[in-house]
């Protein structure tokens, strides 16, 4: 009996509790949410490293988003790396991500004598990126099956021209904290977001 008790205590405090084997290291998911210029995407992720209760994963996806007030579409390619902790199927997750792609710079024009609907005037298009981080919950079984993520994903977004004559402003145009440039308006900012992923690991 004392030997049995000793083994139980040893397994609680020793690494044998953390010896979890991930046989299903891949996952495919559909991601939806409120992220700057990214509302939905299809992604593939893979577990790259696991030790004790720490797991490193990376993902890449594709999205084609409509440009509001226009007939244009912009291709975006979200990529992310994250760490999640815990054994079993419930995990806490944190990570960083980028969304490179083709972005459009524009301004809205409204001729009230013709129409009340604003018209988006595209001034330029260029390869750009947004960046942000994730804090959230991840449901993933080591052996595969249903896959789910829910995260707080605030965005640090930017435009294409270099900053000059910049200044900070808070609480304007939906931004928590914005960086402005005198020649061409808003160039970067911090915007809250949320993301939900549903899929399957295998």
In short:
The protein has about 200 residues and is mainly beta. The protein has a single domain (about 20-200), classed as Porin. The protein is about 5% helix and about 65% strand.
Termini distance? 41 Å
Number of domains: 1
Tell the overall outline: elongated
Task: Give the total of beta strands.
Answer: 13
CATH class value: Mainly Beta
Strand content: over 45%
| Rounded radius of gyration (Å) | 22 Å
Report the average pLDDT across residues: 76
Q: Give, in order, the helices and strands.
A: HEEEEEEEEEEEEE
> How is the CATH topology named?
Porin
- What does the main sheet amount to? 8 strands, antiparallel, barrel
Protein name: DUF3575 domain-containing protein
Signal peptide: 1-19
Organism: Rhodocytophaga aerolata
Keywords: Signal
How does the SSE layout of this entry go?
Layout: H1 2-13, E1 26-35, E2 38-51, E3 54-66, E4 73-76, E5 79-85, E6 90-109, E7 119-140, E8 145-152, E9 155-158, E10 166-170, E11 177-181, E12 185-191, E13 194-201
Antiparallel strand pairs: 1-2, 1-13, 2-3, 3-4, 3-5, 5-6, 6-7, 7-8, 7-9, 8-13, 9-12, 10-11, 11-12
